[in-house]
Amino acid sequence: MSLKNYKHKDLIEVGCDEAGRGCLAGPVFAAAVILPKNIKAPELDDSKKLSSKKRQEMRRFIEEKAIAFKVVEISPEKIDEINILNASILGMQEAILKLNTRPEYILVDGNRFKQTEDIPYECVIKGDGKYKSIAAASILAKTYRDEYMEKIHREHPEFNWKKNKGYPTKTHRSAIAKHGATKYHRKSFKLLPEASQLSLF
Known about the structure:
five-stranded mixed beta sheet; 5 strands; alpha/beta; 201 residues; single chain; Nucleotidyltransferase, domain 5; 35% helix; 6 helices; 2 domains
């Protein structure tokens, strides 16, 4: 089934999504994308359904074709302060407000969001598989975050972030147990069952 180009034909719509909510390390990244109503992009899909190579291709396509887009990162410190759900929503709100075109309607992936100024919004469960603008946001958030994790991997190769991207894999957790947590780890997350015994860099 192909994704829909829009919900409202006569409104400027922005699609929003985030990447990295379930990770133990690294920021959460959020993206907002306004696409042309008549965009032809049959390959545009939920980022999780695309290969890494295809995501990069689609990222270049989105950045070239979008009317406006913005990607925002929310730090592990902020995530620990306000929790991951609020951090994800904050990231999407910031991305929307930093667009150079003001949207008239917001389509958000998932089931939770908060009013952003006076712009009406709608939460769409699995929206990245329903609307092109949300799919585009999912691709930008994912590719920007993956790049960031690959960059900090060079600083801490022992955690293998270039592969696991900060998600709670067995090897990631083993490395935390051996080396302790870094400044990139989310201290409010359960890094290990014996988290109280962690040493911090």
